Amino acid sequence: MTKFDFLLVGVGGQGVLLASDILAEVGLRAGYDVKKSEVHGMAQRGGSVVSHVRWAKKVLSPLIGLGEVDYLLALEKLEALRYIETLRPGGTVIVNDHRIPPISVSSGGDEYPDDQRVRRALSEVTDDIQFVPGVELAEELGNARASNVVMLGALSQSLDIDLEIWLEVIAERVPEKYVELNRQAFLKGKGAIVGIP
Amino acid sequence: MKKLLSGNEAIARGAWESGVQVAAAYPGTPSTEILETLAPLPGVYAEWCPNEKVALDVAIGAAYAGARAMAVMKHVGLNVAADAFFYASMTGMEAPLVIVSADDPAMHSSQNEQDNRRYAKFARVPCLEPSDSQEAKDLVGAALSISEEFDTPVMLRPTTRLAHSYTLVELGEREVEEKPAPLPYRVDTRKYVMVPDNARRRHPVIEERIVKLARFAETFPYNRMEMGDRSLGIVTCGVAYQYAKEVFKDASILKLGMTYPLPKGMIQDFAAQVDRLIVLEELDPFIEEEIRLIGVEVEGKNIFPICGEFNPQVVRDSAVQAGLLDESARVEVKEPEKGPLPPRPPILCPGCPHRGVFYVTKKLKLVVNGDIGCYTLGFLPPQAAVHTCGCMGASIGVAHGANKAGVKGRNVAAIGDSTFFHTGMPALLNTVYNQGNTITIILDNRTTAMTGHQDNPGTGRTLRGEKTMAVKFEGLARAMGIEEVHTVDPYDLKEVEEALRACLAQDGPAVIVAHRECALLPEVRRQWTPLRVDAERCNGCGLCFQVGCPALIKSQEPDEKTGRPKAWIDPLLCTGCEICAQVCARKAILFRAQLSVLPRPNGGKHDQV
User: Fold this and answer.
1) Do A62 and B242 touch (CB under 8 A)?
2) Is B30 in Cβ contact with A45 (below 8 Å)?
3) Quick one: which of A51, A80, B3, B457 is 20 to 30 A from A35 by CA?
4) Do B528 and B351 form a contact (C-beta atoms < 8 A)?
5) What is the mean pLDDT of residues A1-17?
6) Strand partners, B98
7) Which helix (H) or strand (E) covers residue B444, if one does?
């Protein structure tokens, strides 16, 4: 493949931006031209967060066009469903098996879609779907907030990049006292994918 | 060395490398990170000002005094600073000045998507537009050179997409010597005192200057032709250049790094070499209109949208629609049947102190004229407590106007600490002076929160991290002549209600200062203590859900009698502000002090929806 287009989606506060920082830097060290695009400010206050990361020999647009995403990494299930049409038909979608109900579900009449509805919609676009219990795996390490890096570990199984590069970048990008936690989180995520057909 | 930098980081780096000595700004998405990146670098003095007009005056003053200067603002900030922008164009400066105006196509975080290239033309100021981080860095240096050569301020216009996209940048070193020994202030009243007589002499000078700049644009290296297939010629600028290259792989491109004034000869030359000439630019048909004025036939906004930002798909679909690309160029998109999805807009965070104020104003059925900041989000249900929001500082004047118009009841103005300093103060003075009776609530969360926690005159710290005085709102209000001044903790609903009732009971202007740090500030985060619901007591009445906190979630456990889902608190989100605990009629939500008394029930962690 000559290009790798990643869309990372989730909810403000989940660490989408840190995950995309790491992913961009990894691409750079693997020898690709890289662009990354996101939006700060109003867009983050608990709202949907989207980050585009592109690796290729030469990247032009910082944004990935609709239907051109190769890897959709969703840190939350509803957000996977919201952005599934960005995926190239047959592309890879990796979903954190985790729900964060929007405010209109608790205080209004909206319903959070059930798992079946999520899976059915995703499978209309691709067969390459992986659900990862990212929060549970991170909780096993004692910190649910590391689920973003668990998910990166899961994504790494689809990419041919040296483990050393991943771990090196993670170590540089997270606060020192969380380096070991995030290292473990990454490896857990990587392990979670092994054996999934 | 090459590094991935955001457009904002690159602009800061460019300013540093090209020797900017003084920089001033008011924070505003998408421009905020520029000064935050620049401030710690050696040899630069950078400050947050209360608003953009002050920031631009400061930068102009530095340039008058001979220092290389920069002012930074978001697009609507230039509305506030417009007066200064125009006089700076008229006077010119002793040293170069670059004004960064960050536009926001798609309004990711703004109230409009005005195209500030209009200001460049309006004030006869050249405008540069970068298309990636490398150019963002380089064009700061180019802007300063142009400013120096032509004695003009120069506008650098990034957009949100550029400001918040990370692309590779070759880092350089700071080119100029550190600040030389202080020079005497050069007095030149004919140039710098803009009384009519002097201004009349200066006007022809700036008209002549823009003609010279148009000639300069012909050889400006960031204006360049990339000739390919000559059946289509695309004039483009900014990040749209990247979309042009990606979508029209073979077309000829005229890439403009300077979009005002335009290189007339270069455009005519380019137009003569291609069969069909189009302009690909976000927002207004600015270049398109300028090209038409030259007398060259061109298309643009008949093909591409005027609203919102571009992306490869928007450009491709518009091009196919217009016959510029074959139908086969479209990308296959599968849109599965999803059913209705609950939206996920930005909302007030868990533990947000504004929530307490809005809970009470809603309870008292008050009309609230809001302002620009996180608290604008109080307009959303279930709070639905903010009823207008137009621009920075508008709340107080709008509320006063409504009350003078004779509305039933009393309008309330809700304004944040930083916004109050920005443009709220003159409006409050107006309310007092004109004997208004509005109630102004200053939502003082001790930071400029929406843009990511910048200091302001109320926080006691400067951009450089130095300790400084912290303005007290109560004293300020009293000094302005307001007698009814209250201080409340917005986490204490009873206290907020009592203060509001006291203000409503009298007929003069009143100020309530709601003091409570933003829940996301690091020192507050360390004190987060998630609350719990006592499932035995909760009957699923749903009252707490009307507080509108994302940490309060409907559990899967229905109440036996009512059948309604009981409340559950997400321990990952809850900060322990206790607003919901005060609202709960059955005392089912435990206050912090009760947490250790009642043990956590089994399975409390995963029993959500």
Assistant:
1) yes
2) no
3) A80
4) yes
5) 92
6) B70, B154
7) strand B439-444
Residue A94: what pLDDT?
Answer: 98
Q: Contact B173/B153 with Cβ under 8 angstroms?
A: no
Give residue B563's Cα distance to chain centre: 45
Chain A residues with CB under 8 Å of B546 CB are 107
In this complex, is the C-beta atom of A143 within 8 Å of any C-beta atom belonging to chain B? Answer: no
Overall fold of domain B224-328: Rossmann fold (3.40.50)
pLDDT in tens, B62-80: 999 999 999 999 999 999 9
Tokens standing for residue B36: 């935050």
Would you tell me which residues 157-196 of chain A have a C-beta closer than 8 angstroms to some C-beta of chain B?
none
Equal fold, B354-524 vs B528-595: no
Tokens (6 digits) for B114: 């005005």
- To the nearest whole Å, the CA of A76 is away from the closest chain B CA by 12
Least trusted range by pLDDT, from B67-76, B478-487, B553-562, B576-585: B553-562
Q: Which CATH number fits domain A3-104+112-193: 3.40.720.10, 3.40.920.10, 3.20.20.70, 3.90.1300.10?
A: 3.40.920.10
Closest by CA to B39, choosing from B54, B52, B21, is B21
| pLDDT at res. B177 | 67
Tokens of A2: 């000559």
Decide: helix, strand or coil at residue B69.
Answer: strand
Cross-sheet strand order for the sheet of B368-369: B368-369, B412-416, B439-444, B510-515, B484-488
Task: Please judge whether A42 and B546 are an interchain contact, meaning their C-beta atoms are less than 8 angstroms apart.
Answer: no
Q: How many Cβ contacts (< 8 angstroms) between chains A and B? A: 189
Question: Is 0.80 topped by the overall pTM?
Answer: yes
Q: Where are the domains of chain B?
A: 2-177+192-217, 224-328, 354-524, 528-595
Q: Which CATH topology does B528-595 take? A: Alpha-Beta Plaits (3.30.70)
Judged against a pLDDT cut of 90, whether residue A43 lies above it is answered with no
- Look at B572 and A144 and tell me if their CB atoms are within 8 Å: yes
Q: Residues B493-515: pLDDT tens digits?
A: 999 999 999 999 999 999 999 99
Show the CA angle centred on residue A163, arms to residues A157 and A166, nearest 5°.
95
